[in-house]
Write a structure and sequence with these properties.
Number of helices: 2
Structural class: alpha+beta
Oligomer: single chain
Number of strands: 4
Strand content: 15-25%
Shape: elongated
Helix content: 10-25%
Number of domains: 1
């Protein structure tokens, strides 16, 4: 398999000799709230990140319904949340 040694994302070149491309990991910290997601983007931009990575998922597709919550989840979520 042959891989390109250079990649462009909008106006940023990513290669073995280019400056590091920094991706801020927002993950699921937005809690599904678009305003919080926008704040995380602003914070990442202030920190000079080149990109922000978000995650979303539906727990019913990933987690068994009879699995107990971890202690931190019990402290930070209500009974209807995962």
């Amino acid at each position: 398999m042959i891989f390109n040694k250079k990649l462009n994302i909008q106006n940023k070149e990513i290669s073995l000799i280019s400056p590091t491309f920094v991706i801020a990991e927002a993950g699921v910290n937005h809690g599904g709230n678009m305003e919080i997601a926008k704040q995380l983007i602003d914070l990442a931009a202030d920190a000079k990140a080149d990109a922000v990575k978000f995650q979303t998922f539906k727990t019913e597709h990933l987690i068994l319904s009879d699995i107990q919550k971890a202690p931190y989840q019990k402290d930070t979520t209500d009974a209807s949340e995962s």
